[in-house]
Amino acid sequence: MSRLRCALRGFDLKALLLLFVGVPLLIFIIYVHGQKFTYFLRPLWESPPKPFNTIPHYYHENVSMENLCKLHGWGVRETPRRVFDAVLFSNEVDILEIRWHELSPYVSEFVLLESNSTFTGLIKPLVFAKNRHRFKFAESRLTYGSIGGRFVKGENPFVEESYQRVALDQLIRIAGITDDDLLIMSDVDEIPSGHTINLLRWCDDIPEKLHLQLRNYLYSFEFFLDDKSWRASVHRYRSQKTRYAHFRQTDDLLADSGWHCSFCFRHIREFIFKMKAYSHVDRVRFSYYLNKSRIQDVICRGADLFDMLPEEYTFQEIIAKLGPIPSSYSAVHLPGHLLQNADRYRYLLPGNCKRESG
């Protein structure tokens, strides 16, 4: 013992505690919460994107199309353009049904591509093919395609996503699209409102490319996040020029043009599947994130599935969005098919956060 005391006499006890307790504790905290630190400090190292040129959106069911076009500074056509709605499909059967019913009166051709591979290289069934009977109302206007996955281990998920989007480009051409037809580019859960598409097909002189501002919802239409969803877009098709994409393609943004309902699933297993299957799989940092009871609790609180901070570009916006999303009790101005079939889609409406476990 005396030798140990002699050996330690030259060391500072506080320094030893810092070295053997403080440093490992700091490393552990960074490991668990490091992503939160980087997201909170994002305003220091990343500037916000260029602001959109937001176009005011005018609509009322009692206003004529001629007047609606005029309010936007556009002329009115003698006949409407054809509309093609093209999507990559994974497993969002209910949301697809709501989407296609919303757009059905205005769409000339539905184009859908699905793969037996997720973006992360997991094997998946052809879910649409198994549920095709639910879409008989669109069958006569449907161009359907399936594509085999490449299943490349260790590959960035965005490579497989890009591969599937190129294949969708080819399917759109097979569907018979021609110059000046309207092409809707958006994920299944990014739903343009029917009256928005009707406006764009009837009005002349609309921009060749136009992003759609959508109301952002999480888990259901109870948790309204913001109105910053912009990736959905509508294009006046140009042969050899128009390419299907899901990034910013123009500065023009039409205000209040629909809904984006992210992670809006009926079953807990569907949440788990998407968390493991989509391009941001790196956000599943710990296996307990996939725990069923945890996911149910997160949904009912309006919290974040990945325990992340808001993806914003200013400290003011980050702080304003900290914590769970407050519940909304408004079900006004939602997709018509959803409300007409409220009993069937009850889980998507305010006050119904419990999900089916099967």
From TrEMBL:
Q: Name one Pfam family in it.
A: Glyco_transf_17
Q: Which GO terms describe its molecular function?
A: beta-1,4-mannosylglycoprotein 4-beta-N-acetylglucosaminyltransferase activity
Output a single Gene Ontology CC term carried by this record: membrane
Any GO BP: N-acetylglucosamine metabolic process
Query: What is this protein's record name?
Result: Beta-1,4-mannosyl-glycoprotein 4-beta-N-acetylglucosaminyltransferase
